Amino acid sequence: MKLDLNGISDSFASMLADLATVVIRHEITVTQIPSPKGIAPEAIAISAEINHETASDHGISRLVFCRDTSMPEGWHSEFRVIGYAKSPVELEMAKDDYSAALPWEWLKDTLQSQGAKFGHAAGTTTTVISTGHGELISQPQHAELEIRASWAPLSLDLAAHLQGWLELLALISGLPPKDNEVKRIS
After folding, report:
1. Who contacts 84 (Cβ-Cβ below 8 Å, separation ≥6)?
2. pTM score, whole prediction
């Protein structure tokens, strides 16, 4: 992935440069997109999308790496990573109250498994069940799982944060683990 770091300070650009080295699963397409306006003086945004050959509804994600030297309230740092991801899920999974908490636990696990050091995490998880009415009465019920999260990176290795986020997207989208080996616990 090639990044356009124009308008980014040299010190922040050096942190972001490692994002281009992230190994991306073949089922995921990652591209740089315009950063949201007003989110931070310096920011880059990345879009990730699950490639489903047969489904038009699939997992999508946005991740924004921000820097604001004024350290806005709640950031606890001059850096913040802000993410949004959603994916369709099985209706029965959406009806399970426990399922709504899974993306948050998966986020922490995937970041930690990639070695991403972080703190001051905040976010929400949402399960949406849609039912058609009126002209859409014939539309079957469908469900989505969504997570909105942000955290302060505690190290300069931002590539680990991107890798962890991409693994989270894979999990909520139902992709098998990257490492398909089953490990024995001795």
Report:
1. 61, 62, 63, 146, 147, 148, 149
2. 0.87
Q: What is the DSSP string of 14-35?
A: HHHGGGGG----TTEEEEEEPP
Distance of CA 163 to the CA centre of its chain: 9
Q: Where are the alpha helices (H) located in the chain, listed in sequence order?
A: 10-16, 91-95, 102-113, 158-172
Contact 122, 149 (CB under 8 A): yes
> What does the pLDDT look like over 14-69, one tens digit per residue?
999 999 999 999 999 999 999 999 999 999 999 999 986 655 568 899 999 999 99
Task: Identify the bridge partners of residue 50 per DSSP, sorted by sequence position.
Answer: 28
The separation between CA 41 and the C-alpha centre of its own chain, rounded to angstroms, equals 21
Q: Which two tokens stand for residue 114?
A: 């990639």
Rounded to an integer, what distance in angstroms lies between the CA atom of residue 184 and that of residue 75?
Answer: 40
Gap between the Cα atoms of 63 and 84, Å rounded: 6
pLDDT at 98: 76
Residue of 162, 171, 180 whose CA lies nearest to 89: 171
